[in-house]
Specification:
Structural class: mainly alpha
Helix content: 55-70%
Number of domains: 1
Number of helices: 7
Strand content: under 5%
Length: 96
Amino acid sequence: MSDFITLCVRGKCLLDDIDDYVEAWHGCDSSLPLHSYLGMSRPEYSLWMMDPDILPFIVEAHRQHRNVNELIDESCQTGQRFHQFTPNLVNKNSSS
């Protein structure tokens, strides 16, 4: 089974689905820590815990094989809101 981040990168999962994955982790016998189960590094997981709105940056960082902090810095410098780049991942109720 692929992890949550990988499925998001492939377009097979929405960001809103993360709660389902966290719940599944709590209900399974996985020996993986939650961050690994989700497909995040420990620093990415820490960022997400501090600010859940960072999740699109984490997914995009994986998509681009880049450090999430670079994407955050670029977004701050350009003033662009990240959801403009990934509207299909933001939530199930989004309309294009």
